[in-house]
Amino acid sequence: MRAPAPTPKRTVYTEAMEIFHRAADLIGLDKRVRLELEEPDYEHIFYVTAKLKDRLVPLAPEQARDFANLSVTQVRNPEGLERLADGKIILNGRALLGSDVNISRGHLRLPDGNVYQLVPGESQRFKAYRVQHNQARGPYKGGIRYHREVSLDLFKALAAEMTWKTAISEVPFGGGKGGIQIDPRSYGREELENITLRFMYRLKSLIGPNIDIPAPDVGTNGDIMALMYRQYSDGERERHNLRGIVTGKDVRIGGSEGRAAATGQGVAFCIEDYFAEKGETLKGKTFTLQGFGNVGSHGAAILQKMGARLLAVNDADGTLFNGDGIDVPALIAHVNDPKNLRRSVLGFAGAQKIEKKDFWEVPADICIPAALGGEITADVAERLKVKLIAEGANGPTTPEADRVLQKRGIDMIPDIIANAGGVTVSYYEWIQNKRMERWSEAEVNQRLEHAMKRNYRIIRDISRNQARRSDTHDSRPFCIGKEVDPRCAAMILALKRIEAHYLLEGFSQ
Ligand code: NAD
After folding, report:
1. Which of 165, 177, 249, 285 is catalytic?
2. DSSP E strands: which ranges in 442-489?
3. Which of 123, 247, 325, 457 makes the best surface tag, with the fewest CB within 10 Å?
């Protein structure tokens, strides 16, 4: 008797690719194109090492009792101490200069009263990745993530998402993604600088402004992009021509106006268009938000300006609720307060703390997941009391949850269109760098609005099988003769646009 074929292991990547296979089946995607897209072009794994600094590690109160007689060491240069989100303190050389240092068995007491163990800095190795998924439509493009929970499997899924997203938003790029397995909040500024420079040193031979263009993602920002640019271009005679090696840079060094807010802005444009079609505006609409980082905070601020109210927000540290609406600019100020080391929403005076499980049950018009993937599970989908989900995050809804949401009639603006504003304005930044131009914020946002709404309308038409041409869009080449759910419609748009390249250009031999 023949043994049954083993069931393939379910991973984040296989889950993410379920929708690809469904759309590919529906449109009868060319067999060879399917093989090309099923796996990434390249999967790079490499290691980055760095020498860490000395740290002061706080003792638990019961351990600290052994040092009851230890007198306080005055710190004459408090700037030499860098407090980290994990409670440890980095001791920069100058911190204790000129102080009377009282050390007992490798421990000292700081003016905050706590006893700390002095732990000498050691070298550490970090695992780093860059997945280059597909470049049929242009150079690989995708973010750099610094997070503890990353893996090759996750980066494969995120890189493939970028291939679909760049096609949907009609920017001339393919898909890539990468980063480092690290919790950036547990490292000091100079340490992160060294790790980033070393990361780019290794990455340099694999990327280029016309080959693969990174951008910020979870745990990275414009400061990290600035370091990556410097490391890539250092010493090159034509270094200014290389500015397009990364996007998401500070506007003062070649970043685009509107890039920092672009992903949140794109989410808001989609939501606005969703309601506009029903003859409604955002005035008086309510929303809940998971993740108050780049995407979440900008998105919330823009929606509030449009007249919507934020009722509840959840981040890595906790959840807040205010039935009258949370004041978004005030919450942004709280999160950005230098004393708020974890950059957490917790501790904000303008709302009450609630449990995470209750967050998902807050009744509202819209829920915006803008944190990590896999957060809306089937169980969460059963409990949601919203009418619309707009996916700011990448892959926040599991395939099972998708089925539950469809059954419950909860509408969905899928990630590959909803959060495409970031990569769209990254493209504008890249063009500005190439042309040595500078566009105004109004110009950037006007282009972004057209691009987002045009492609979102095509996706809605594919979903309803309503082939038509309007002043703003033409969905006729993409409708497939039957209705499909919006996520599948978005994937159909991506696959048809990518397939055209292979079918018209052919395969290089
Ligand atoms: P960020 O690092 O600026 O913020 C992440 C936020 O998520 C923080 O508020 C953090 O506290 C919260 N968070 C982390 N883990 C959580 C958990 N387990 N539960 C609840 N909240 C948690 O990241 P970002 O740039 O805003 O990206 C957020 C999402 O949007 C990611 O999925 C990212 O891939 C996606 N995205 C970002 C961009 C961009 O331009 N930044 C573009 C497209 C998609």
Report:
1. 177
2. none
3. 123
